[in-house]
Amino acid sequence: MDLTLPESGWTLRLVGLGAITSLGASIPVGYNIGVINAPTEFIKHWSNETIYRRYNVLLSDDSLRAIIASIISIALIGGVIGSLQGAYLADKYGRKKSFLCCALLLTGGALCFLCCRAASSVELLLLGRLLVGLASGLTTGVIPMYLAEVSPIKLRGAMGVLCPLGLTTGVVVAQVASLEQALGTEEHWHYALGCFAVLNLFCYAFYFWIPESPKYLYSVKGDQAGSLRAIRKLFGRHTIGDDYIKLQMECANGQHGPSAQEDGQPQANRSLWSVVRDPTLTLPLVLVCALQGGQQLSGINAVFFYSVSIFESVGFSSQAAKFANLGVGCLNLFASLFGPLLMARCNRRTLCLLSCSSCAIILFVLTLSIHFIHLIDWFSYVCIGTILLYIIFYQFGLGPIPFFIGSELFDLGPRPTAMALGSLSSWGCNFIVGMAFPTLQNIWGAFVFLPFSITCVLLTVLIKFYLPETRGKEVTDVVPKVAHGFRSRVKE
């Protein structure tokens, strides 16, 4: 009887789990990030008419702008709140049920979008945006952790990038759906907002087919029999040799530091306060929060926002510029498709250093080329080239790695809290960029990209000196390398 895992490590159940979580949650979350920009004018006009009809109040332009800002930003606030709840839900109810919660919140948001026009309710639209925001924060905190915990060590990176890959795919699908040739019209914009609910059906249809995280069952719930059943469900009855159980389980005897547990006993959940106060967790917590927050502060959303005006500056019509921007989104998706291969073949630290340092240089060049674009004609093409290069290098490391690096730096006890704080940092910085960028752009002009370049420089320094290599390593081997705070310098 063969007691070894297939050489590739992939099984039908493992591939299916990655596809189901991506289709059921990650892609819908990305969809909601990308869909809201195109129909903004339609939503503004409808909101004005609806409020006047229901409350007999005629809104000023400033009031309308405030409503649109609220509709956009409430999802980001929901992302912050959802991130904070991720640790509690993941430990209390498990990774699998947390995934179901993501899908339920997304479906609830979609129903609000689909019904808001029939109900003539701006409040329902706001509620829908809040629900999808809660789902987004929960998804980015829980799904990468779930996928990393069900994976063999050599596939942990490839599975970990499926969540950011799903987000990127969702953004591109949203850009297509919100085109005027599709659902981006005054009559159909609410269908554009809510049609992603079809994808949530993948969660409901296959929910009982996917297993709970074996590591969660073993080390958090103390359910060794349930953990063994989950492993068999993932990898088949004939792949449960002793070596593979050791590979899958972060057992008690292998834990380090305050999160250690006694042999055979479930690992105690770590509260937010205990994780923040623990000096052995300071450095990994800084790394996770800096990478996830820095991912947003590196300016990826701002670059997409600015790309339409850059395409227009080289002579594209408004419509052509939007299609060119869609092409940029497709490039972003194409580059992200190499993520699983890169994570399997290349070191995390090397990819992060290459990505952050390259993005810092590219953003600096973009700043100069935008500033002098009216003096030298061909600088318009430099701008386009730098945008394309930025997206490619962003997807090498800065795009995918922050989502799952927490699963490789933390033991199971503090991991949900650390992943939740990383997700909180991401959505908080996303909110800051979304609120501050338009104002700063008006004040600083092209130099609004300099803070993004500086962020990438700071991330490069942090990674250079403090991020250990995690590819192919047990978490128990990585934890001691970051347990001494900022004295834990990486040894080349």
UniProtKB/TrEMBL annotation:
Main location (coarse class): membrane
GO CC, one annotated term: membrane
Compartment annotation: Membrane
Top-level taxon of the source organism: Eukaryota
Molecular function GO terms recorded: hexose transmembrane transporter activity
Gene3D superfamilies: MFS general substrate transporter like domains (1.20.1250.20)
Membrane topology designation: Multi-pass membrane protein
Keywords: Glycoprotein, Membrane, Transmembrane, Transmembrane helix, Transport
Domain Major facilitator superfamily (MFS) profile per the UniProt entry, residue ranges: 18-471
Transmembrane in keyword set: yes
Stored PANTHER family: FI08437P-RELATED, SOLUTE CARRIER FAMILY 2
UniProt family annotation: Belongs to the major facilitator superfamily. Sugar transporter (TC 2.A.1.1) family.
Name listed for the protein in its UniProt record: Major facilitator superfamily (MFS) profile domain-containing protein
